UniProtKB/TrEMBL annotation:
It comes from the Eukaryota. Keywords: Ribonucleoprotein. Belongs to the snRNP Sm proteins family. This is Sm domain-containing protein. GO terms for molecular function: RNA binding. Residues 42-96 form the Sm domain. Coiled coil: none annotated. One of its GO terms (cellular component) is U6 snRNP. SUPFAM superfamilies: Sm-like ribonucleoproteins (SSF50182). It comes from Scylla paramamosain (Mud crab). The keyword Magnesium does not apply. InterPro entries: Lsm7/SmG-like, LSM_dom_sf, Sm, Sm_dom_euk/arc. It holds the Pfam family LSM.
Amino acid sequence: MSAQQQQQQQQQHHHQQQQQSGGERREGGARDGEQKDKKRKESILDLSKYLDKAIRVKFSGGREASGILKGFDQLLNLVLDNTIEYLRGVTSQLVH
């Protein structure tokens, strides 16, 4: 094995060790490539098929709202138009 092949093998081995251990530490505690390789969580909901359609949303605090879905993001923040909010049996239309 040539010196160049040995060096390549050592570099590959070092790279594999970094991947297994989570990478080298950098200033600020960030790991090598952590931000680049960070997997983004994908939503299990495909809300794109509900765009411009009437939907009803139940929030964790017990509140509910319905309206026309105009937009959303990866964090499931929603933009609703013509929204009606339901509060424990009381209905109120939100006008903006």
